[in-house]
């Protein structure tokens, strides 16, 4: 029973967050596309390790200053390769999928790819946590896992803008990589800085970055949901306009309202 609980503790947080974002899409994506994106996110752990392990072995012994080492580990060994390969999944698989046909899709696929990576990463941390695996699972369920998800949402938002605003595609694709990479690196730098310098104050940087990421991603999600509601309303109006002309009323009918409130 212990191994089952350990695996569940590592995997369930990712699945709950994934369900939240998938269900928030008013035009749901095909299950096959979601599963394909998720498992590609899992698979990119391999090239990330292929890049990070030899690079770390070559660089880390040469760096004696703790904060410099934290910077190398946070950016060169984690943020840059991880976000680069997540972006590759979005560009080489998701963006080419016929189901990627409106802006919210970018956000959903970005979250999905990131959570595929986060699920395997989390499983490795929890299983390798020894007797303290419960604490690791709980801590990561509220930090690293949602952090990966919201970075994927931000990345996917910019990928979608590149797709649907081709005149700005170059700038949007650079933003799709640089923004999540910078946020990821700063978050890791705060945690690693605290661990390597034994100064707990650096943790504050990581927490601030995590809060910024979450708020930013949720605002983008809300913005795209409003856009979807506008589209739904337009579709409903078009359907009504094509319906047979209703009988003439002697008095004006009361003004109808949308079932959704748009702030």
TrEMBL record:
Family matches, as InterPro entries: Peptidase_PrsW_arch/bac, PrsW
Entry keyword Hydrolase: yes
GO CC annotations, alphabetized: plasma membrane
Alphabetized UniProt keyword annotations: Cell membrane, Hydrolase, Membrane, Protease, Transmembrane, Transmembrane helix
GO biological process, one term: proteolysis
Bilayer disposition of the protein: Multi-pass membrane protein
Pfam short name (any one): PrsW-protease
Keyword NAD belongs to the record: no
GO molecular function: peptidase activity
Location(s), subcellular: Cell membrane
Region (Disordered) residue spans: 241-263
Primary location class: membrane
Transmembrane segments: 6-22, 34-55, 67-94, 106-127, 133-159, 171-194, 200-218
Family: Belongs to the protease PrsW family.
Listed name of the protein: Protease PrsW
């Amino acid at each position: 029973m212990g191994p089952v609980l350990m695996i569940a503790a590592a995997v369930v947080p990712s699945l709950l967050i994934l369900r939240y974002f998938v269900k928030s899409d008013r035009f749901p994506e095909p299950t096959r596309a979601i599963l394909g994106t998720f498992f590609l996110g899992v698979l990119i752990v391999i090239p990330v390790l292929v890049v990070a392990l030899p690079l770390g072995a070559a660089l880390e012994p040469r760096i004696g200053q703790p904060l410099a080492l934290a910077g190398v580990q946070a950016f060169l060994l984690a943020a840059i390769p991880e976000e680069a390969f997540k972006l590759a999944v979005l560009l080489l698989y998701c963006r080419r999928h016929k189901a990627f046909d409106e802006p919210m899709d970018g956000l959903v696929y970005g979250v999905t790819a990131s959570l595929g990576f986060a699920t395997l990463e989390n499983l490795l941390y929890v299983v390798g946590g020894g007797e303290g695996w419960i604490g690791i699972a709980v801590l990561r369920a509220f930090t690293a896992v949602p952090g990966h998800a919201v970075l994927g949402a931000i990345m996917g938002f910019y990928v979608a803008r590149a797709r649907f605003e081709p005149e700005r595609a170059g700038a949007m694709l650079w933003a799709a990589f640089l923004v999540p990479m910078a946020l990821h690196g700063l978050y890791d730098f705060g945690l690693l800085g605290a661990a390597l310098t034994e100064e707990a104050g650096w943790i504050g940087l990581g927490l601030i970055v995590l809060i910024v990421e979450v708020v930013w991603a949720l605002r983008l999600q809300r913005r795209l949901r409003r856009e979807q509601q506008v589209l739904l309303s337009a579709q409903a109006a078009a359907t009504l306009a094509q319906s047979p002309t209703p009988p003439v009323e002697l008095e004006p009918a009361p003004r109808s309202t949308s079932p959704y409130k748009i702030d």
